[in-house]
Amino acid sequence: MANPWCFDFSAAESSSVTPTAEQRAQVHRVLLNSRVSNHGISARFKLHTISSTGHVQISPSSPASAWISQLAECGDWRCGCYRLTRPEVRCGFRDFAANKTFETLAGKSVRYASIGSGLLLLDFEILCALAERGLRIERISLIDTCYRYAHGVVGDARIDPTDGNAYSQAGFEEYYKPLLHDKWAQQWENALQPAQVADAISQVAHFFPSTKVLVFPSIDHFREACTVQPSVFGGSNCFVHADAGGVSREASRDIAGLSLECGGLAFFLENQGHHAQNDLGPEPWP
């Protein structure tokens, strides 16, 4: 049954585009073993590369590309979290979040929520790190304004998941143009085409079949869902704010406090814009 807050991208285990256990293990090895041992720029490009639209993505030559070719992240080289010049930041945050979550939730299922998740590359790595440690991913809640057009939905207070106007490019561009303050922001937003956004979410959902994958187009939608139906949308136990441009820590803390169960964890990675700084740390809740 459709709800007024989010899209359900959950995939079935039997899907033809769902990887086998062996294929998932290979992706885990490729992504999670690529730690900071790659000291040269050329070595880093073996796993990650820059797309024609300027974002960082998995190299097409990587075995992982078959399953996550649409996943990506911002390619602003000035950022303190830029993967190609500071690989230790995102890898360190991923491992730190996975280790702390495993210590806290060992034997339990993970109900994961992420704000400003974009094209999901870092979120996917964190989820893989959790799965590799033996944790079952029960639910994935993803929150980002770019998801407003994952199904071409244009709206303000509420969305209609049954809307038939798929991939509304005109509405997408109208929404984003006022936000493009410089060429780096414009380069990133131009990469976020509606079809790629939907494909990236679908790839994550198919990699974690039988996991509930819920996609919210704004913090307000997520907040209302958690308030009206907390038993369905609330009760997260791992909340991630990873390089979420335009979302303050205060806003993240507010929504984390609403959505997390008692004893859940909130993790924050902040790039401080393009000032080449980062702030990494967990916050048990409450």
Ordered list of secondary-structure elements with their pairings:
Blueprint: E1 7-8, H1 21-32, H2 41-44, E2 48-50, E3 56-58, H3 65-68, E4 72-73, H4 87-105, E5 109-115, H5 121-132, E6 136-143, H6 169-176, H7 183-191, H8 194-207, E7 212-216, H9 219-228, H10 230-233, E8 236-242, H11 249-259, E9 260-270, E10 279-285
Parallel strand pairs: 5-6, 5-8, 6-7, 8-9
Antiparallel strand pairs: 1-7, 2-3, 3-4, 9-10
Helix pairs in contact: 1-5, 4-5
Write structural notes for this entry.
By secondary structure, the chain is an alpha/beta fold. The chain has a seven-stranded mixed beta sheet. A three-stranded antiparallel beta sheet has the order 2-3-4, with no helix packed on it. Strand 8, helix 11 and strand 9 form a beta-alpha-beta unit. Helix 1 packs across helix 5 and helix 4 packs across helix 5. The chain is globular. The two termini are 33 Å apart. The relative contact order is 0.18. About 19% of the residues have low confidence.
